[in-house]
């Protein structure tokens, strides 16, 4: 092998080793970092191999030639960047170029095309960008990543090819990070049964979900299927006939916990207290003394909870309580 061929082989080995280490680091970060911290950590790692100082990373739908953002993360960019971009969206050649070559990164000089793109670059101190899109198989949304270098700096074909090979891994890492978030959330719950977890965006599109999530939603909406919350179910929460959904906001996503409703959910807090103490074998007088109410009031609560639960004795109440995990 000639010296030139040997040098080329050595350089190829070096680049493959660099790529392997980068991918391992990205997937490690997806397991270790929170939902709020993952994107920044991953982009900081990418800066070690790509010459950018700002980035826009998100998931969007491409509808009639327009981009509708479902979730996004800005790195080094002003909070108003996306609104500025929307004002010149029709003038951005990047959208057309990227969708002509899905999965292939494209380089765009923001000052060599349209007046709108030039204005955006000048306003935010951006020179060239390299952009890639990838259709996420779970959400059917478009994952997009645009990396920006400052005025005077340049991306080259090696950078473009590297981002092309990275995009599917970055999309998978976002999914893995969301699943890790669901696992961590489940570990913090005192109740573990009759529930399932999911992540959705403000449009109700599910990004990640435990296997039981669809099963529980189907109990409330038997004909429902798909990757979007059923009509009438909001990301902010839901209370229905058979399920209830609690929601926690994290960045621009919603962490959902769906619970199968218990018959005990129809009881007031005082009725539930009476039911629990009654099932423990306490007498009316003991319950009255502990709750600071009259024995006649205890009897009133008991009649009311019997009626609501459609039962007729203490043993039936105790059975229902034993089937309901503490929440």
Automatic annotation (TrEMBL):
> Which GO molecular function, any one, fits this protein according to its record?
DNA binding
Keywords on record: DNA-binding, Transcription, Transcription regulation
GO process annotations (BP)? regulation of DNA-templated transcription
Q: Name one Pfam family in it.
A: GerE
The residue ranges crossing the membrane are none
Residue ranges of the HTH luxR-type domain? 260-325
Q: What name does this protein carry?
A: DNA-binding CsgD family transcriptional regulator
